């Protein structure tokens, strides 16, 4: 992890440096990251950990460590592409259930029809729905709030979005990009994949 603080890049510059990961968690893990989540959270310092799968975190920090990190994270964003049935079932359970009204008609031996209404519980999103999230959507689990299904607004579709660039051996810097669809950006779409 390359840290440059949040401070101006140079005298008079408006660009600010931010932490930039130089290696994925599997090759350069912070062993005590799960414990740091609680510690830094109590100091109002927000940590962001991006994992491809829950299992990636379990591989790096063990099941107990990943459970600690997951429990201490106050905001969790689950995107498309997950294919683990256990994790999908867990997320489905966290999303919860809702009441579903059902109506049935019963005909007795005399031909009299009676109507019966009942209310049952049904999962809002089953594990199969969590697994089948479309690209460009995500599930938001935030402490103290009901889960939400989000339509993501990619950074590269924002007008004059600021792109943070960082790679090993280089300084982290920010540069403005042209909005997709602008005359200077050309006629082709600037998005790398359809959403």
Concise account of the structure shown:
By secondary structure, the protein is an alpha+beta fold.
Describe the protein.
It is a single chain. This protein has 195 residues and is of the alpha+beta class. Helices cover 23% and strands 23% of the residues. The chain contains four helices and seven strands. It has helices spanning 33-42, 54-72, 85-95, 127-131, and strands at 75-79, 97-107, 113-123, 137-142, 148-151, 162-165, 173-176. The strands form three sheets. Strands 1-4-5 form a three-stranded antiparallel beta sheet, with no helix packed on it. The chain has a two-stranded antiparallel sheet with strand order 2-3. Helix 1 runs parallel beside helix 2. The chain is elongated, with a radius of gyration of 24 Å. Mean pLDDT is 75; it is low at 1-9, 13-18, 20-24, 174-179 and 181-195.
């Amino acid at each position: 992890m390359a840290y440059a603080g949040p401070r101006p890049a140079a005298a008079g510059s408006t660009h600010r440096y931010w932490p930039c990961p130089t290696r994925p968690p599997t090759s350069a893990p912070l062993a005590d990251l799960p414990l740091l989540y609680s510690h830094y959270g109590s100091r109002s310092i927000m940590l962001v950990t991006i994992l491809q799968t829950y299992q990636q975190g379990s591989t790096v920090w063990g099941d107990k460590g990943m459970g600690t990190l997951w429990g201490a994270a106050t905001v969790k964003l689950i995107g498309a592409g997950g294919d683990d049935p256990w994790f999908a079932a867990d997320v489905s359970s966290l999303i919860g259930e809702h009441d579903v009204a059902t109506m049935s008609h019963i005909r007795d031996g005399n031909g009299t029809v009676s109507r019966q209404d009942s209310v049952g519980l049904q999962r809002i999103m089953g594990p199969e729905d969590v697994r089948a999230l479309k690209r460009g959507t995500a599930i938001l689990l935030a402490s103290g709030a009901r889960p939400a299904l989000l339509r993501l607004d990619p950074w590269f579709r924002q007008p004059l979005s600021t792109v943070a660039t960082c790679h090993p051996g280089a300084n982290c810097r920010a540069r403005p990009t042209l909005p997709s669809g602008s005359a200077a950006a050309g006629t082709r779409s600037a998005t790398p994949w359809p959403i």
